[in-house]
Amino acid sequence: MERLFKTHNTRKSIEISSIWDFCTIDNNGAKGELIKMVVPSCWESHPNLASYRGKALYSKKISFGGNIRLVFKGVSHTAEIYLDGKLIKYHYNAYTEFDVILNNIDYCEHLLEVKVDNSFHEESSLHFGNDYYSYGGITRPVVVEQLGETYIKQMHFTPSREENVWFANIKVTMVNLSKQVKTLKINIKIGEDNTIHFDEITLAANSENVFEKKHEIWAAEEYSIENPKLYYLNAIAYKNEQPVDDLIDRVGFRVITLDGKDILLNGRKLHLKGFNRHEDYAEFGCTLPLQAMYRDIEILKDLGSNCVRTSHYPNDERFLDLCDEYGILVWEEAHARGLSEDQMHHKNFDKQSADCIHEMIENHYNHPSIFTWGILNECAAHTDYGRSCYEKQYSLMRTLDKSRPLTSASCHFGSDKCLDLLDIVSFNIYPGWYFDESVDEHLKRLQEWIATTDGKDKPLIISEIGAGAVYGFRSTNKAKWTEDFQEEILTEQVTTVLENKDCSGVFIWQFSDCRVDNSSFYARPKSQNNKGIVDTYRRQKLAYRKVKEIFKSFK
């Protein structure tokens, strides 16, 4: 199940998430024992591969032919795709969707192979030993689509409101795979009552074409946290009045704007009460089934949370679909965490970062729940070279999406050089946990310093705050790592931030405990980041009820 709804009626699409042949590959290229592996999954779910880091080969025989689009929603983290022994695609980054277009291939049974590598190899600038785990495998769904000579590659929906009238700006990308000029038309239906027509469009041979229109929408119901109204966006391409391709997505009518230090959703000030969340679950690693994603959403709602940050990478699109449905606002983040200046000098850093940003925004653009894009968590924003990297990435993001504000979570209190580049100032602070200072005093000092920078008139989010606790460890002396100590610290932290009129909100670190790379973060108890409000099985810690009480008391 690649999405929560059907994305095509005309185009034939088959998900090949099933049992594949699998074997490990050693450094000399020798193959290990052939076994079966579920796709999608991370191979760490297999009892004999729980800590395996390296290369593996997935293979499956599939019958198809003609024009084919192979869609990989996520392979962790380096992928080589082979068809009948021939390399057809190389892709880097575990957390973004990519595809392969096969033109006029023979109709027969084909061997599809995916060579996967989750090692920290020299070509990898973003995946390395970190405070979360880089799992291995085909971790998200795989889809085979049958294409005609022309197909709808992409459709972006940008809502706007002018004098209480809603408009939809639609940008459609069409591809002509044939050697002849093609003429067709496209109708795009928004909900039941509005249709945008692209009549008699001409596609040059072997070309990609972009068409754009703005259309007034009658009786549009706005999307909000309390009423997350969604509309189906249904595009159909016609040739001689016959449908030849289609693409379906879901959208919402909402605008995100900034007014001084406030973030506004449809003109109303937001008070963000959220969590940082890793895609990590005890039984499933990073490959959460839909039921587990649904459970996380229900826990977030029970806590009184209205937002989530996808720390520190783009999320499975089905989770974003659930956030759309439930009115959970999303800060979606491109993949990068804790990079030093030396690491940002990596020969592949610029390209791999740009690829991730492109794939994240291009594929997730239509989700109404996403209110901001983020980059480069706790990276070298305090250096001149680091600033140049932030500047390039922000510039790229603004070319891809002008409708959303941009942010980055910083830990460089007093030295960050990038606050003029972003739209929303965000800081990670841990008073009471990593240093002994009251939350109120630390927050006051942070805001006084920001007031001396180019971030002074911008919204401020406390993007991380929290304390660790090992599930079940209780003590009346409130020692470090006890649930009692975590409850006490979180109570002070969250209350202080939410009471501060110049803060737009808080994202607690973190939603659930997660596995870490213990070669780099060996000091973490149980080889986990234990700052979750629930553990890896989603069992509630003592602080759960207190945070729920605080969140629900702040409107």
Please provide the count of β strands: 30
CATH architecture of the largest domain: Alpha-Beta Barrel
CATH class of the largest domain: Alpha Beta
CATH-defined superfamily of the largest domain:
Glycosidases
DSSP summary: helix tally: 8
Helix content: 10-25%
Name the overall outline.
Answer: globular
Instruction: Kindly report the CATH topology of the largest domain.
Output: TIM Barrel
User: Main beta sheet, described?
Assistant: 8 strands, antiparallel
**What is the structural class?**
alpha/beta
Radius of gyration: 24 Å
Enumerate the spans where pLDDT stays under 50 for 5 or more consecutive residues. none
* Straight-line distance between termini: 36 Å
Report strand %.
35-45%
The total tally of domains equals 3
Task: Name the features.
8-stranded parallel beta barrel, 18% helix, globular, Jelly Rolls, Immunoglobulin-like, alpha/beta
Could you write a compact summary of the structure shown?
The protein has 555 residues and is an alpha/beta fold.
Describe the protein's architecture and organization.
The protein is α/β, with parallel strands linked by helices and 555 residues long. It has three domains: 12-147, Galactose-binding domain-like (Jelly Rolls); 150-251, Immunoglobulin-like, CATH 2.60.40; 256-553, Glycosidases (TIM Barrel, Alpha-Beta Barrel), CATH 3.20.20.80. It has helices spanning 290-302, 317-326, 341-344, 349-364, 384-400, 439-450, 483-499, 543-553, and strands spanning 12-15, 19-25, 35-38, 55-72, 75-76, 78-83, 86-92, 98-117, 137-138, 142-147, 150-162, 165-176, 182-190, 194-203, 207-217, 231-239, 242-251, 256-259, 262-265, 268-269, 272-276, 307-309, 329-333, 370-374, 406-410, 424-428, 460-464, 505-508, 514-515, 528-529. The radius of gyration is 24 Å and the shape is globular. The two termini are 36 Å apart.
